[in-house]
Specification:
globular, 9 helices, single chain, DUF4331 domain-containing protein, alpha+beta, 13% helix, DUF4331
Length: 464
Amino acid sequence: MSSHREAPEIAKDPVADSSDLYAFVSPDKPDTVTLIANYVPLQLPSGGPNFFEFGDDVRYEIHIDNDGDGSPDVTYRFEFTTEITNPNSFLYNTGPIDSLDSANWNRRQFYSLTRVADGREHRLAHKLPCPPCNVGPLSTPKYADLVRQATYSLSTGERVFAGQRADGFFVDLGAIFDLGTLRPFQQLHVAGKKIFKAEGEPVNATDRMNVHSIAVQVPLSRVRRRANRYGAGDQASVIGVWTSASRRQVRVLGDRGAADTSTGPFTQVSRLGNPLFNEVIVPMSKKDLWNSLPPSEDKRFARFVEQPELAALLPALYPDVFPNLDRLNKAKKARADLVAILLTGVPAGLIDGFTNATGDVQADMLRLNTAIPPTRQPDRFGVLGGDLAGFPNGRRVGDDVVSIALRAIAGVTVPLVDKTFRPDAAAGAVTPGLSAADVTAPFLGNFPYLGTPYDGFNNPSASS
């Protein structure tokens, strides 16, 4: 789920597939915002000898909209190159990798970082080295040291990292895509009640898997538009964030060992704003189209937000559990609550002390009110749990976005726009049953926040 294999074509191109996007005011540096975009999903840690990496032929970008038009005002662009140091070896490394310039490391990646703003491109860094993949205790014995070496503070105020991390997303993929089974409620499922006598234990399908992250920590003044004041109620405090990956339009395959050639303008092949948007809102026939378009075009998909398929499935899959939601669905009322959460931001007046509205343009972006400070004790349910610094106000690495999204679709958020609606009792309890505690690699308290990637030697999935 989230966006690990969300569309037919991009599922065939994992190097360009954005799996998760995070945007939050940095808890340890609240005068900055941290933006993290994950790519190359579902990596088996023991994937040698050709370990996972970014694509040299892919342009990776994180976009920020600070005026609400669904178009980027600031973009951070990452472009990668790969070098082989020993052309006569098949090995990723021939000994321990103890530094980023180790002669034992045979396949190294570098990247340039460009900031695009006000129609101008500014190269912030060139040929910054990535860390290696976490191979194992003999090959990468001090992996945390390599990550520190690969985390850079730039003269323009940004901190940046690009490399492998542990996948911090938690979801019971096997159950959810087996006819929408939620293991804590499996005995109530229309088909499951014939098989299950009690609730089941959830399984985090993405645990012990790795991803590749591009991460940048940016001073707030570098992402917000200029304004006289930045308060929690001021629209100038709200930014919209999404990530994209693009390839050149033409690729010519080399013949008999000749190198492939790519030419022409870049065209977008993947994007991600809110988790689960393309995954569970957009119909399969339109998923590839959605990946090719900018957020400013998302009014084309508004009807799928207003009448989401999943909202109709819940009462069908769990008979008599969601009667109020069933009546709401049959009334064909447009889900104004979901439109606000996913496409326009939540306007002032619906939740005390909170708004992340960006205006009337319907666009799928992670909307973050940068004037809302981080909380010392984050609530995994974010805004639904009374924690205004969490999803759908941006997204932190530990936010339980699957449960939040399921509860919103099940009707918990309808009273924000319709005081007469009473959510079903189950709506506030629906969950796949997982939390950040089900992620084996602990999150970090500082940049880049996602945990140390799993190594192939010690990872049980490598020998299962």
